[in-house]
Automatic annotation (TrEMBL):
InterPro entries: HORMA_dom, HORMA_dom_sf, Mad2-like. It comes from Amylocarpus encephaloides. Its main location: nucleus. It comes from the Eukaryota. Belongs to the MAD2 family. The keyword Cytoplasm does not apply. Keywords: Cell cycle, Cell division, Mitosis, Nucleus. SUPFAM superfamilies: The spindle assembly checkpoint protein mad2. GO terms for biological process: cell division; mitotic spindle assembly checkpoint signaling. It is found in: Nucleus. Residues 116-138 are annotated as: Disordered. Residues 18-219 form the HORMA domain. This is HORMA domain-containing protein.
Length: 225
């Protein structure tokens, strides 16, 4: 789902939980592509320009990368709507050393959760399930305001090349999704460690929020020896 801007109607539009979930999932998709382009994980010629959020975004045209991201997004969409995602992480790893050199973390706060189906026979694990946030609900915003916050994050990701160390050699990437313990996980998804950056620096970037979600952005990176 995309949010189209109505220039003549800056009215407050309260996204439903489902609509907000789709918006966040879509934001993740463009974030992954933007990070891969800006950090030079793949050649610039492997990306295609598209218009999104009032910006020119670059998305991968590499078949393998597109298939990988599509597989992630198809599952992420379901988990987001069910309120089961607490975090998405993009980890960049050196092919030469196997060392994790950059880690982009997107923390998801949920202000309202979908109601559990009464017919569900599964018991929820309350210890492991991420509870809804106790933080006060954010003020309702216009679609233009939400888009402006998203624009700011992408501009920060683009500007990150000014402080992040240049990536040496060939790199690859992985996407980690933190889901509730009772989430139904497809066979092709495997458990993973957190892939933290050892002795890394951390920089907190901007956030955006809707009436249902807040997404905070953080990048960790390896500093020189």
């Amino acid at each position: 789902m995309s949010l189209e801007r109505e220039k003549h109607k800056p009215k407050v539009h309260k996204l439903s939980l489902k609509g907000s979930s789709k918006l966040v999932a879509e934001f993740f998709q463009y974030s992954i592509n933007t990070i891969l382009f800006q950090r030079g994980v793949y050649p610039a010629e492997d990306f295609t320009a598209v218009k999104k959020y009032g910006l020119t975004m670059l998305v991968s045209s590499d078949d393998q990368v597109k298939a990988y991201i599509k597989k992630i997004m198809s599952q992420l969409d379901k988990w987001m709507v069910d309120g089961k995602i607490s975090k998405l992480v993009v980890v960049i790893t050196s092919k030469d050393t196997g060392e994790h050199v950059e880690r982009w973390q997107f923390d998801v706060q949920i202000f309202s959760r979908p109601k559990k189906s009464k017919s569900s026979s599964k018991s929820t694990n309350k210890e492991n399930a991420a509870p809804a946030s106790d933080a006060p609900l954010p003020a309702e915003k216009t679609e233009v305001e939400i888009q402006a916050e998203i624009q700011s994050i992408f501009r920060q990701i683009t500007a990150s090349v000014t402080f992040l160390p240049q990536l040496d050699g060939d790199c690859t990437f992985n996407v980690l999704v933190y889901a509730d313990a009772d989430s139904e996980v497809p066979m092709e998804w495997g458990d993973s460690d957190a892939k933290e950056i050892k002795n890394g620096e951390k920089v907190q970037l901007r956030s955006f929020s809707t009436a249902s979600h807040k997404v905070d952005t953080l990048v960790s990176y390896r500093v020189g020896d």
